[in-house]
Amino acid sequence: MITTLLVEHPWLAPTALAALVVLGPLVGRWLAPRPRAACAFTALALLPVAALTLVPVDRELFGRCEVAWVLPTFGRVELFANVVLLVPAVLTAAVALRRPLLALLAGSALSAAIELFQALVPALGRSCSTNDWLANTIGAALGAALGWLALRWAARRWSTLRG
């Protein structure tokens, strides 16, 4: 299970986030003049989101929804991984749409929809949590910021090539 993997290797999520922060703007800049490719990358980035949040798991639920507001930290490995989860999809969506704020709102809404679905379908064996939504939204904000950076970088490059 993913939680076990994250607990055994707590460096995975922070390393993935660092890689996204470094490589994300480069990939976004490359995708900026290729909106179809950016859409394809967004769809590809949403596959792990669906697999990690909507595929049923074999566990007994003791509660269906948790309402808590805890910020993710390196020590809370599963919550920190929730930050990383939406960064690639929102980054590439921001580039594809050329609207980072819209991509951020869509990422946050997607996370809320996932949590609602988990609450309404207990057969999934997944519990909803406001903490997950908060962590996903923080990740979406980071993805949108990286997408904005990539778009600014690409625009600067285009103006230099034209000028």
TrEMBL record:
Has UniProt tagged this entry with the keyword Transmembrane helix?
Answer: yes
The protein's UniProt keywords, in alphabetical order, are: Membrane, Transmembrane, Transmembrane helix
Q: Where is the VanZ-like domain?
A: 69-149
Kindly name one Pfam family recorded for this protein.
VanZ
* InterPro entries given in the database record: VanZ-like (IPR006976)
TM ranges are: 12-31, 38-57, 77-97, 102-121, 133-155
Name used for this protein in its record? VanZ-like domain-containing protein
What is the native source organism of this protein? Nocardioides massiliensis
